[in-house]
Amino acid sequence: MSQRPELRLRPREEDRLLRGHPWIYDNEIADVSGSPGPGDEVGVKTSRGRFLGSAIWSPASKIRARRYSWKDEPFDAAFIEARLADALVRRSRWKDPAADSMRAVFAEADGLPGLIVDRFVGEDGEGRPGSWLSAQFLSRGIEARREAVLSALAKALAPDGIMERSDSPVRALEGLEPRSGVVAGSVPERLTILENGLRFGVSLGTGQKTGWFLDQQENRAATAAWARGRRVLDVFCNAGGFALCAAAAGAESVLAVDASADAVRAVGENAGLNGLGDRVKAVEANAFDFLRDADACGADGSYGLVVLDPPAFAKNKASLDGAVRGYKEINLRAMKLLAGGGVLATYSCSFWLSRDRFLAALEDAATDAGVTLRYLEERGQAHDHPVVSGYAESRYLKGFIVAVERRR
Ligand code: SAH
């Protein structure tokens, strides 16, 4: 082990790493002994020689190394199997692997930098039960160990098929080409999963984007708890996770809105699968236009619960200010629609928008809408997307469920 290359940090660059952050940026490194290649293991030391763990070298990336262990140990097949086993044990505390779909591996937050694995449990198109994986290899280190990861997954989870979805743009930052396709067994065009007691069609394929957002599973149930007897508007509905949950929880009616035709079609199919077609309608529209028109029509009072679950408007630090304006606008419109008294469940999945800045945008919107917000519940991402200390990037999904009240 002592023969392997070692990187030494510049003076005073160790604080973040000591707190648990796994990334070492190119400009934090003083020097490297040996000549590590892409995906090679390197030891990490402070400028004074204190050992900080083992990392993977990625010369093309600004994130020049990712720590995978606090110890001096190899990132080999046995290590991968052990980390995967840890991740599954963690989830078995509240999930039932025989019935529940879950994010089985959440990259750095599960000690496997760059690896994301979603596991879907359900039925194929012919009603045959099974489980299927969707895997993303997003860093140099995990790409170099792809075969070991695939066999560890096969061994631990015995899936009927594995779909690789390594087509995220972040791969380019690591100097990696996109790759996707079935890499083990077979994966049906369409499968049906059970979530919150409802059936949803999920497509893991490379074609249309109607995958499934597992991170909102618990928020769908928490939001639906406010739906009984109300007219519900689910904006940015995708395949209708919130919409159907709300309908099943006793909403009077649900209108779901998404800009994607595939998503709108999926909502209709999912409503049908659950016998909720009479109370759930979906329309294809741009959310900004839809909310502006609804607001202009003076639809005040017609909705009792509005859900806002937009895509990440802020994709990086530079786009944050514009993103905040977007979050403020949709929330302002929703608050106006609810000003007669109703509940808003509003989410942001952008890591770059902090919880406090999101809250400030909501309060700005409330001020402009002339309403008081009564905070009912603060929400985060589902537990199978763990948040760990020292690694702020692991906490990305924020949500607030608030009662909107006219000022008196
Ligand atoms: N609420 C969903 C997840 C939403 S993901 C769930 O529970 O699964 C974000 C969705 O916003 C995507 O389906 C995308 O098609 C949609 N979207 C993105 N920009 C939009 C816009 N301007 N107007 C309406 N929908 C939009």
- The geometry reads as globular
**What is the CATH first-level class name of the largest domain?**
Alpha Beta
Helical content stands at: 25-40%
Mean pLDDT: 95
What is CATH's topology name of the largest domain?
Rossmann fold
Number of helices: 11
- Count of beta strands: 20
Distance between the termini: 70 Å
The class by helix and strand makeup works out as alpha/beta
CATH H-level superfamily of the largest domain: Vaccinia Virus protein VP39
Task: Name the hetero compounds present.
Answer: S-adenosyl-L-homocysteine
Number of domains: 3
Sheet with the most strands, sense and barrel status: 7 strands, mixed
Unreliable stretches: none
- CA radius of gyration: 23 Å
User: Into which percentage range does the β-strand content fall?
Assistant: 25-35%
CATH architecture of the largest domain: 3-Layer(aba) Sandwich
List the defining traits of the structure above.
11 helices; 408 residues; Transcription Regulator spoIIAA; binds S-adenosyl-L-homocysteine
